[in-house]
Amino acid sequence: MKIKKLLVLVFLSVGLLVFPKxxxxxxxxxxxxxxxxxxxxxxxxxxxxxxxxxxxVIGPLALLMLIVGGWQYMMAAGNPDALRxxxxxxxxxxxxxxxxxxxxxxxxxxxxx
Length: 113
Known about the structure:
elongated
């Protein structure tokens, strides 16, 4: 419970420090790995750029976790607990990746371009 409160506090603190620049419609220098944009002017562009950066980090991590889950599955050797753990690893990696892609797709619909 303390960790959740700490995470909320950190995200709110970062938001209060960063979002006023976006709220005043200043050009915030933040490069996007997909679109190559260097100037973010709206809140939607800002969130979209953060999600694009998250995709560049989480995509390879999800692939790594899929490989780890596959390795665990192969090495389980019929052990039901090890098989469940491997399946859980694979499921969580795919769920996280699909959730991030869904958020990115939703942002593309809300703020195209």
